[in-house]
Amino acid sequence: MASELAGLAVVSAAAAGALSYARLATSRLSPGIPRLAALLPVLLLLPVLPFAFASIHLRTISAFFFVWLCGFKLLLLAAGHGPLHPALPLVRFVACAALPVKVQDGKQQQQQQQPSRALPSGFLLSYAAKAALFAALVSARCCRARMPAYAVPVFDGAHVYLMLELFLASAAALARALLGAELEPQFDRPYLASSLGDFWGRRWNLMVPGVLRPCVYRPVRARLGAAAGVLAAFLVSGAMHEVMFYYITLEAGTGEVTAFFALHGACVVAERCWQGSGLWRPPRPTATALTLAFVTGTGSWLFFAPVIRSGLDKAIIAECEGMLALLERAGRNLAAAAHLV
What we know:
By secondary structure, the protein is mostly helical. Helix content is 76%, strand content 0%.
């Protein structure tokens, strides 16, 4: 634990320094090749930072933050596109670059001004329930081998969803405290998705489509059409997931994760063609059930296979159990201290 905390301090300082340099350098250069050249040292440093962690969770989450999201944001900055801009205050620039967040624009904040005052209690209650459910899933992991075949993909999918949302919500809470601003949501109830396009584009891990649209989809769509843009975005997502899996397994990718996203990209294109043709569409509850069944089924086949085959799923669960035990001890210590007071 001490070594991981030391690694966290080193990584945080290195990232803050590199991003401060990125802001300073780009403020003096015009968009294009000059900015890209100035950002190259930062883009080369970011993939190294996650290796400071021995923990699979810290290594993978930091890779997602720095290698994928921050790297793509810096590429957009080099081209003169948001969400980053050299004119942003330093703290906001660093937080928006390093953390998986996007600050709401003025119109969104005005529209949500009244509801946001009532947000904290509902927010805390929702995430407390999700944390309790995640703890229950971790505790029940020993029963996974005895589950029916149809239940395993649902179990694995729920585990990944809750773990991701809790990690990203923690990062968003830090960003909200630093920035004092409302942030765009990171998830929007993906279990209610009525189509693959709805699931990937509007509900699941929204920071990813937030960088893939301007980096990949829109440039390709402008040249080759919407279908090519969708396929390109999913292929890039698959390639980046292979990179994320490398940080998990520390082994070369097998291509299965890329195949998963290529399959889903092709299905989203086919889905759009079907919807545009005016043919029969199933009722929303049926469409939601079919969408979730397809995502969990193909995920079990292609997405989870590399981690399970390597046996690292057991190490990941062991880390989760360790974190839960640490939180439980901390809670007991706080309760004991409060009782003494």
